[in-house]
Amino acid sequence: SSYYQFNPRVLDFNERLESFIAANPRWEPLQDVAGGAVRTDDPPELRQHKGSSAGSTQFPHEVTSVGQFLYTPFANDLVLEFARHVIDVEWMGREDGAPDVLWVGLSAMDYLGHLYGPDSLEVADAVLRLDRSLAVFLDDLERRFGDRVTVAVTADHGIQAIPELARARGRDAGRVAFGYSANRVKTIGEMPPHRRTLETRIAQRLGVELPAESPVDHRLILRTTTPNFYLNWPRIEALGLDPESVRRATRDSLLEIEGVAEAFTASDLSVVRAPKSEIERAARLSFYADRSGDVIAYLKPGWIYSGGTTGSTHGQAVEADQHVLLMLWGNGIPARRIDSRVEIQQLARSLGHLLGIDAGTPDAPPLPGLE
């Protein structure tokens, strides 16, 4: 779009990267974290299930490359410093009557949650540091713009506990893996256990022979992009199978896999009806007929789609993944706390309402108090 004009001064910030990284060669925990004042659940005997960007699953973490730097809270400070640079070189916040919008993505929190798990010392330390960094950043905005600034802080998702840690605490938890490396798997029998079991059960339901020595091209599921399962339609057509019967057989077979909570065919979600569960409600909100899978499967709380033995992830219709912070501060924001359930989609409508413009989806009203 010609609306966005390239400003080469934005890229001047890159000259500061090397010195910024050099100034943070090691990540040590803050005293509140190291001394136990901040609650964590990071037992030494389970640290082999934490990931690591530098070969270490415990403090201190050495920072010797850009890649390792991204997996530290210092990366958040770098992004906030870049935000200040953008405000300066783009002349944001001028008193010309036109609102300026700046999106700041603090992605290091995502990386750290995946790698070390949300209960880790690393995540606790990063959250505490980010809280302090945001305080400095907000003070800076207030000095620059006075009462002409409005800030919203939120997240796109939460994250589950590392399953091995959850299981050690007596909770139902585990990993489910359906994906595999196409370069390494040549037959059905070489597939990972969950995937092999799933393919076999689907074939049994349909009366199809699928011995372990069958070539991988005979699989009934072409690929998975969790929670979506895309069927192998050329193979299904060659076998003369009814498409809807294959979808139902896949759905029912998925429901037999340990950890799977609910599964739906694309046809199930295309029928207009009230959802029968919170998971179905989430599935319907996420379903897009032209892009979603032929079958969609969501896991129980504590379970994640993962083929490894370290780290954690997100993507399920469960409290740990769906419950995120939503905080607004500044011009037009009354001092109050809302304890009722709200949706992140309401944020765009709320900010639009403050600016007197139509923004976001009509299905999401402004937040209470900002109507």
What share of residues is helical? Answer: 25-40%
What is the overall shape? Answer: globular
- Tally of alpha and pi helices: 14
Strand order of the largest sheet: 5-6-8-7
Order of helices and strands: HEHEHHHHEHEHEEHHEHHEEHEH
Structural class by helix and strand composition: alpha+beta
Percent strand equals: 5-15%
In terms of topology, how is this protein built?
Elements: H1 17-22, E1 26-27, H2 31-34, E2 61-62, H3 66-70, H4 74-89, H5 108-116, H6 121-145, E3 150-154, H7 163-168, E4 174-176, H8 193-206, E5 221-225, E6 228-231, H9 233-238, H10 243-254, E7 260-265, H11 266-270, H12 278-286, E8 295-299, E9 303-305, H13 319-322, E10 326-330, H14 346-355
Parallel strand pairs: 4-9
Antiparallel strand pairs: 1-2, 3-10, 5-6, 6-8, 7-8
